[in-house]
Design a protein that fits this description.
single chain; 282 residues; alpha+beta; Aminoglycoside 3'-phosphotransferase, Chain: A, domain 2; five-stranded antiparallel beta sheet; two-stranded antiparallel sheet; 9 strands; 12% strand
């Protein structure tokens, strides 16, 4: 598929604020486009979105350019996106299946992605002191790694597209599935999840996601290790982003996300065996 023709700005077009995320500020819709501030990972994300368009992957916005205000311009994807508080339908297992299939299709589309010379994923702020090690597995894909309810667009009850690729970077499939399970299992204390998911059978939901994605036995056996290590790192990284970048990161930290992450780690220690058993059962 050829890359779309250059986008032409329409001065004076009404802008409608879009809400729902934690970090991105100043997000608006103008006509059939979304305008957002350029992030530090923008060159890598733009190259990735161009690649996805060339591959014919419909489940991501198209990068159109930069407007006169210095904001990136993306196509607006119509559909249903959860707001907050999260609606009861986020617990529907049919949606869970569709998420697994969409993420698999996306991940497969990134297998042959090669960033242009000089374009690399932004490393973010320097690693903070005491940061625990990451899982020691070679990246296989370019993961989305932010598969929150707010970042999945549904059509007719099925996951249609992923949005907000700011955290995209080389990753393993186990990393990607951990992130999906984190939000859609969900892998958190019941007090920290939407009411519709507080009584969810989390091991079963993780198995549904794994099966829909086509997760390998190797990655199923790695999932718990990845979940624990990523959770431990997340506490340090979130604290550091709050201190360095402020804004939405600082608001989340002030709202208690550090305590939530510590509760998640304890929850994983208590429930990890049941999740691993569900994932690997034959």
């Amino acid at each position: 598929m050829a890359i779309a023709a250059p986008w032409t700005e329409n001065p004076g077009e009404p802008e409608i604020p879009l809400t729902g995320g934690d970090v991105t500020e100043g997000l608006v819709r103008a006509g059939d486009t979304v305008r957002r501030a350029l992030g530090r990972n923008a060159p890598f994300v733009h190259a990735l979105l161009d690649h996805l368009q060339a591959k014919g992957f419909a489940g991501a916005p198209r990068y159109l350019g930069v407007d006169s205000a210095g904001r990136e311009v993306l196509t607006f994807i119509t559909g249903e996106v959860t707001g907050r508080p999260h609606p009861a339908w986020i617990a529907e297992e049919s949606r869970l299946v569709s998420i697994g299939r969409l993420v698999r299709t996306y991940d497969d589309a990134t297998l042959d992605f090669k960033a242009p010379e000089g374009v690399t994923p932004s490393p973010g702020p320097a690693d903070p002191p005491g940061l625990p090690p990451a899982p020691d597995h070679e990246p296989e894909i370019v993961g989305h790694l932010d598969i929150t309810p707010e970042n999945v667009v549904f059509r007719e009850g099925a996951a249609y597209a992923l949005i907000d690729f700011d955290l995209a970077r080389p990753a393993t499939r186990a990393d990607e599935l951990y992130n999906a399970m984190l939000w859609w299992g969900p892998l958190n204390e019941p007090q920290d999840v939407a009411p519709a998911l507080r009584n969810a059978d989390v091991p079963r939901r993780c198995r549904i996601l794994a099966d829909a994605y086509g997760m390998t036995e190797r990655d199923r056996s790695r999932l718990l290790e990845v979940a624990v290590l990523r959770t431990r790192r997340t506490w340090f990284l979130m604290k550091h982003r709050a201190e360095v970048d402020g804004g939405g990161w600082q608001r989340m930290w002030d709202d208690g996300v550090g305590d939530l992450i510590k509760r998640r780690e304890a929850w994983l220690e208590r429930n990890g065996a049941a999740i691993e058993s569900a994932l690997t059962a034959t």
